[in-house]
Every structure is written in structure tokens, then in C-alpha cells.
Amino acid sequence: MIRFLIKGLLRDRSRSLFPVLMVSAGAFLTVFLYSFMKGTMDDLVNSNAKFDTGHVKIMTQAYEELADQIPNDLALLKVDSLLEQLRSSEEKMVWTPRIRFGGLLDIPDAQGETRAQGPVMGLGVDLLSSESPEIDILNLKNALVRGRLPQKENEILISEGFAQKLGVEIGEGATLIGSTMNGAMAIYNFKVSGTVRFGITAMDRGAIIADIKDVQYALDMEDGAGEIVGYSENMLYDDDTMLALTERFNDKFLRDDDEFSPLMLSLSQQRGLREYLDLVDVFGGIIVFIFVVVMSIVLWNSGLINGLRRYGEIGVRLAMGEPKGTLYRWMIYESIIIGFIGSTLGTVLGLAISYYLQYTGIDFGAMLQKSTMLISNVMRARVTGWSYVIGFFPGLIASVVGTMFAGIGIYRRQTSQLFKELEV
Amino acid sequence: MKKLVIYILLASCSLLYAEEPSGKAILEKVDANYIAENRKVVSTMVIKGRRSTRTLQAESWIQGVDKAFTEYLSPAREKGTKMLKLEDELWIYSPSTDRTIKIAGHMLKRSVMGSDLSYEDYMEDPKLSNLYDSELIGEEKIDGRDCYVLELTASKEDVAYYRRKMWVDKERYLPLKEELFAKGGKLLKRLTINEVFKVEGRWYPKRMVFKDVLKSGEGTEFIIDSIEFNVEIPEYIFSKASLRR
Questions:
Q1: Helical pair A13-48 and A2-11, crossing angle rounded to 10 deg
Q2: How far B232 CA sits from the closest chain A CA (Å)?
Q3: What secondary structure letter does DSSP report for A412?
Q4: Closest CA to A224 of A120, A68, A87, A101
Q5: Are A198 and A21 in contact (CB under 8 A)?
Q6: Does residue A238 or residue B142 have the better pLDDT?
Q7: According to the model, what pLDDT value does residue A422 have?
Q8: Under a CB-based contact definition with an 8 Å cutoff, are residues A183 and B114 in contact?
Q9: Which residues fall within 8 angstroms of residue A286, CB to CB, at 6 or more apart?
């Protein structure tokens, strides 16, 4: 039967080609849009996790309230002891302290006078200890453009674009002018050991990365850190696990009567990322829904046109005594074959292009010049298990539903009128 | 008889005038109290922050209204940090980095050593009558002392505070309280003088508290440990070279 149906479809291209193309286009768009959106959103979440939120982040309650202002005067103190407790109680997590800071980076000339100066955002991370996970988390080895990673105290990495703007070379000195934890002016000399390209406009515009010990000294934050970030060992974010961890930690450490007691937040609880994560799911659903509805209408219309074109054929078959139900089912079988072929072609094409963009990506750097979001300039697609089915089944369903609507016309044909109609 | 009446009236008017000097006259007397040809001050700043209290000691040389040089004596972290004001320019020297940084633009709004004072406050012309029009708006008692209440409105552009309300001790011509406002009317800082002393014939604040109302913490107490007027200050003090000496 299937062979018979396929032969019929292949011999009558107008019955197969257009519907297959329609279903393919729809399935392709669904797979591609879903994968690209998933990739972009995942990039956003990953960039934020790596550079900002961690999978979980610990701050003082007071710091968290003003986190956008980087209030280091409200930072965590006695960080070493807290880290020790975390590492022993939550062994499956990687914990690392960070200090975020802002200020001016001043490049001196030979006389010590200002040669160039620019606003900078800084990140103090553990760069020098042997067990530090930061070089991998921040992907610093791959991001390195010139020079080398810091190997001794007072060495910093500076974003390549910023280094070029300031005209600073590897090995030259750079003075940070910022604020200490007490609000006094901090002036501290660093040496540029290398330049990096983060691939995130907000950071490439002007950022430095220094060892946390140097930053603690520069900002008068002995045994202090703005935040402690934690990552799961496999670096994959699982919201339920992190929320459970957050609850455990806050039950143990958070105190309502002490604004400087530590508070843990999961990635989804920071910077509205929960909404972003939900958005991906909602958009995926909307795309599928629109696809099914629009495709069904288009294929319904196509089925009606087809029905008119095959008016004679259907009439003869009914006149020859073929039951309406059988005819209706045959048309549905045809639509299943069309839907299957179209959805398969569309899904394969969508997956192929999505896989390509997963590795190459599209560079939107020029459009993100003023962006302050921690989002990668190169937006990539991401193929997930859903990508394989998100276009396929809606394509199949739309094709069948469209035909079911169009096929209803069969039941309206009056057998007694058939020969009269055929004579005409 | 007519002449006598006119004489009495004129005399009464002049007495009234003597009792209520103009805002401008009061402000000029305040300036005269503060301004000296030069002075050397050793002061202590107690900064009461949200989490901790820090104490800094500094020695300053001030010449007229245009030149000032300050060197921090303690704590160890700040020791040797120097600030130099020459007319409308300000430099800060950090001994740990051996760098001299010019403070300009938005950096002037930043806090001096984490206190409630900004570099802008440090740079301000101490002669208020140069910057403000003054109006006497009333009289009040502060800590049992009779005070004139003055309202000062900026007469020049680029002043740090557009409006000030000042309570001036009627007898000593020393402000006992001051409120500093932005152009939009928002209160920015409050100054309270808690103790005064007489030195070389003039009244001077001994202990005062600056409070930046936009900042958390209890404010910054500024204590004059010693002050000498009209001392001889070597000219090299007011040069950039002196920062690295």
C-alpha cells in the first residue's frame, strides 16, 4: 500500500512537491530558530555564569542589595574560613573568591606623569595558586592574544582593545586608581603581562584581570572578597540542584539581624536570569504552536486546492464504489508520507545549518559596541535533543491536520450526483 | 524740638542697624575669622563608617585661599600620602606607587580617604563671601548660643553646593551648624561644630562633624590638634616636587 501511495505521489508532483516543500520549510525554520535561540540564550547564561553569577554566588546581604554598584565596603570578610567550610561541606562544587572593582587605569610615561588613562572594570580572581579553577573557567589560555598569563604578584591581564586604545605594551606598568574598601582612594601599580580578548563587548571595552591577593592589598580588603562563586564540578548548571544548595547554605549562615551575614543565590535568582531561562522554553512553545497552526492552515488550503484538482479522480473512485472513509484514510496516509518526508528534509537541513552555526557562529560584535550585557559577540546555535523533534512532529501533525480539514469535503459529495458531475 | 525728635529717630535707627548687621557683613566677619595669611594645622580625622571606624592624622600647610599642602602621618597605610592644591588644580601623591595623580573632573567628587569630605570640599575657596550672596533669614539658638541664620546662594558657577544654610554664633562669628544643598534643593551634607577654642585672638572650631547624608555611617569627626597662624612656610612646599620629597 505504501509503495502504491509513494508511486502516486512521485508521479503526480503537484500532489507531493509543493506540500513537501511547505512542510520542509516550516520544519527547517522551527529547528533553526529554536536551536539559534537556545544557543544565544545559553551563551548569555554561560557568559553570566562564568564572569558574574557563577552557578551560585555568595555575598553579604548588604552587598547584594547594591550589587550593581559593586559596593566593596560591604564585602564578605573572613573569606578564607568560609571557603574552607564550603570546600569541606559541599565537596561536589568548585568554590572561588572574586573581587569586582572599577576605577581608572593610568599609564605613566618615563617621568611618572600620566601618558594615557581610561575607565576600567576589574576582576580580582585567584590566578596564582596551583589549584585555582579560574584560568579554565574564564578560558584565559584561549583568550590570550599577546604576552602570557600572570605568573607572579602585581601582574595583570588587560583586554586587547583597551591595551591598544591606551597604547600600553606587554611589560609596561599600569596604575589602578580606584577606591579602597573604606572609600579612600586606592592607587596601585601593576605590570601588564598579557592581553586577552574576552569576546564580550562589555569587557573588551576596558577590563583587567588581576590576582585576588593583589586586589585585596590594593583595595585594603584583607581576607575579604566581594563574592564567592561556586560551580558544579561538571560545569553544567542544574537549577534544582543549585536551588537546593542555596537553601541549605542560607539555612545555616543567613541571619536576619546581620546585614553582613552571607547570602547565597543561584544563577536563576540573579539578574533576572530565571526569566531568560523561562523565556527560552516559552519561545520554543510559541514557535511550535505558530508553526502547527500556520502550517495546518496552509496545508488545509493546499489540500482544498488539491481536492479541486483531483475532483474528477475522487469522483470516479467514489462512483466505482470506493467507500468515503477509505478514500479519506488514503488521503491521510498520503499526508503522513508527505509530512514524514517534508519534516525529515526540513529537520535535516535545520540541524545541518544549526550544527554549522554551533561551531562557527555569527559575529554581532559591530552591533554590540555599546552593550553592557555579558553576552558573547559571536552568537552560536546549540543543537539539543529537542532540536531533533521540535520541527519533525509539528511538521507531521500539521500535514495530517491540514489534510483532515481538506478531506472533509469528500463526505459532502453525493453519490447520486457523481455521474452528473462527471458528465459535466 | 523738631531737631531733637529727628536726632532721636536717627539715633534709634542707627542702633537698630547695629543690632542687625546684613548677611553680607556677617559672612565677611566669618571669613575674617577663618582666613589667615597662612597657617599650619595638625588634625585628626575619625571616620565612622558603616562597619568600622578609622582614624587618620594629617599635617597641613595653607597659604591664603589658593595654596594648600597636606601630608598624612598615620595610619601606616596612608602615611606619606600627600595632597597639593595650587589654585584650581589638585594632585595626590601615593608613596607606595611613587605616582603623582592629578585629581580632576568627576574624581573631585570622590571621598577624601573614605571620609565624608570630598576633594571638591578640599578645593573650595574657603572665603565664602567670594562664592556666595548671603541673606540674613532669622535668629535661632544652637546649644544655648544665639545665632544668626544665614542663607547663602551661589553667586558663581561651578560651586560644589548651590545653597547653604548657616547658623553663625552672634558673638564669635563662627558657624556652629551648616547645611549644604544641591541646586535642586536636596540636602547633601551637614556640618556641626561641637567644640570651639580661642587661638591667637580668634575663635576657631576644635571639633566638627561632617556628614554626607547620601552616605551610610555616622559621619567624619574632624579634630584640630594644633594650629599656628602666620607661620613661615617655605615656598618649595607648594610645588609638585615637594610631593616626592
A1: 100
A2: 30
A3: G
A4: A101
A5: no
A6: B142
A7: 59
A8: yes
A9: none
Please tell me the distance from the alpha carbon of residue B196 to that of residue B177, in angstroms, as a whole number.
12
Q: How far is CA B225 from the centre of its chain?
A: 16
How distant is the Cα of A68 from the closest Cα of chain B, in angstroms?
16
Domain ranges of chain B: 23-244
Give the model's pLDDT for residue A138.
87
- How far CA A148 is from CA of A75, A195, A272, A386, in Å, comes to 30, 8, 36, 41
pLDDT higher than 70, residue B18: no
> Nearest chain A Cα to B216, which residue?
A73
Average pLDDT over residues A70-85: 94
Q: Is the pLDDT of residue A282 over 60?
A: yes
- In CATH, which superfamily holds the domain spanning B23-244? Lipoprotein localisation LolA/LolB/LppX (2.50.20.10)
Cα(B175)–Cα(B132) distance, integer angstroms: 15
Q: How many Å lie between the alpha carbon of B115 and the closest alpha carbon of chain A?
A: 7
> Which grid cell sits at B38?
597662612
For position B17, what pLDDT does the model report? 47
Read off the amino acid at residue B92. Answer: I
**Is residue B10 pLDDT above 50, yes or no?**
no
Task: Count CB atoms within 10 A of the CB of residue B165.
Answer: 16
Cell of residue A173, nine digits: 606598568
Per residue in B46-95, pLDDT (tens digit) is: 999 888 899 999 999 999 888 999 999 999 989 999 999 998 899 999 99
CA dist., res. B151 & res. B128, Å (int): 12
Task: State the ipTM, two decimals.
Answer: 0.77
The confidence score (pLDDT) of residue A15 equals 67
Query: Any CB–CB contact under 8 A between A119 and chain B?
Result: no
Nearest to A93 by CA among A117, A65, A126, A57: A57
Q: Tell me the domain boundaries of chain A.
A: 2-47+275-423, 56-236
User: What residue ranges in A275-390 does DSSP mark as E strands?
Assistant: 362-363, 378-379
A residues 58-77 lying closer than 8 A (beta carbon) to B: 62, 73-74
- SS3 state of residue A78: coil
| B198/A421 Cα distance (integer angstroms) | 122
Q: Inform me whether the C-beta atom of residue A175 falls under 8 Å from chain B C-beta atoms.
A: yes
Instruction: Quote the CA–CA distance of A354 and A388 in Å, as a whole number.
Output: 11
* CA–CA gap between residue B29 and residue B166 (Å, rounded): 13
pLDDT in tens, A79-128: 999 999 999 999 899 999 999 999 999 999 888 788 898 899 999 999 99
Grid cell listed for B84: 597639593
Asked if the bond preceding A71 is cis, omega within 30° of 0, the reply is: no
The three cell numbers of residue A268 are 536563576
Residue A256 has pLDDT above 70, yes or no: yes
* A146: helix, strand or coil: strand
